[in-house]
Amino acid sequence: MDEPFDCIIVGGGVAGLGAAMTLARAGARFLLVERGEWSGAKNVSGGVLWGRDLADLVPGYWEEEGAGWERYVRHRRLTLMDAGAATSVDFKSDHFDETPYSGLMVLRSRFDAWLAGKVQEAVDASGTDSLLGTDVLVEEVVRDGAGRATGIRAGGDEFLANSVILAEGVNNLLTRQVGLQSEYVPADYVGVGVKEVIRFDRSVLEDRFQLSGRAGMTNEFVGSATAGVEGGGFLYTNMDSVSVGLVIGMKSLRDSGRKPYDLLNEFKAHPVVADMLRGGEVEEYSAKVVSTGDIRGMPREIYADGLLVAGEAAGLVLNAGRAIQGMDFAMRSGILAAQTVLEARAAGDYSAAFLKNYRTALENSYVMKDLRGFQNAVHLLHSPALFEQVPRMVCDFGREFFTVDNRPARKAFQILRDVRKQHMGLWDLVKLGSQAGRAM
């Protein structure tokens, strides 16, 4: 019988590749299996990779010709919308130009393939016989009589390992198979992400969004972006395209009877968004289930005997209003899972009692600190006041405040007072402001 791997990683996304790079650099022997034809082949998502963990995995990536990212974040915008208007808060700063960058726009099909190539380079340099296997569908986690994970079964064959990291994404069937995730996750805890990639001539894109070099812009939208359905919109600038879409609450979408694609078309037809997208050519459409950041949707545990769960399979996503964070959580959790495996290898102990160190490391990291610390913000974003009343109130204020029409002008406080009365009681506004201040 072949000697078991130190670790088998299921999933070639950001979490799995972060784990693989960590193991490769330490000279551990691992098998990474990905169900797509290559890492990223099945991943149609895109967005922003926040933080600087990529610089630890691939030092100096920003100097590499043909690296797998699109643009770095220099300009951030938050837009509140009603049916015909929008009010935005803009922030643009040269501190974002410092390397390593704090935010990268990526298209996952390209980024994951590039990062997998970097992992392969690390494997080659390590001299181990670690493998990155693609086009492999894992049927189940193999466990011994005591319930300890000892490998995987794929294509009728068994592959053995001292440990298994599940980085399989939001449709975490294997996490369910081993009993860590409930078969049914309430619709309140998940959403639907719907997105298009729209192609532009690069010069047109850079002129329209005032971009230079590899600098880019992120724009989040709240309000009529989702036509009264709980959720919000986003637009990210790539090198010669934009990623534009919605993240919609699953329960609210179901109750509305609407279709995600119809909501996306309505969002794109909004005057503000339509001006941004004018002349672009739709190149890609995708829809997928996504976690919403509600900690109650996480698996009941993220470790067991011989097994760890990382990335979105562990529900590690946060949408707290400041940003949509998922890829950074996935990368950090993959790194921490791999570090725990290396510690277990040194100790010769892959028991749940030892692998609990992964949970401890994750709790001590920004991932769980932010997930726990911003739960009130996640719940607040589900409030109709946040995605209906507040955007309409702000836009109604803007209509009068910014209109000059040769009539006596009212003071700002008078406009705000009357607009507030139309949309929300004073006490409700005070409570909402207090909740938002504490949550954010």
Task: Explain how this protein is built.
By secondary structure, the protein is of the alpha+beta class. It has three domains: 7-60 and 104-181 and 299-364, FAD/NAD(P)-binding domain; 187-291, D-Amino Acid Oxidase, Chain A, domain 2; 379-439, no CATH class. It has helices at residues 14-25, 53-57, 108-126, 173-177, 202-209, 250-256, 260-269, 271-277, 327-347, 352-364, 366-373, 375-380, 384-401, 412-423, 426-439, and strands at 7-10, 30-34, 46-50, 71-81, 86-92, 103-107, 131-134, 138-143, 149-154, 157-160, 164-166, 190-199, 215-223, 231-237, 241-249, 281-291, 303-304, 307-309, 318-319, 324-325. The strands form four sheets. Strands 3, 4, 5, 6, 12, 13, 14, 15 and 16 form a nine-stranded mixed sheet that branches. Strands 7-2-1-11-18-17 form a six-stranded mixed sheet, covered by helices on one side. Strands 8-9-10 form a three-stranded antiparallel sheet, with no helix packed on it.
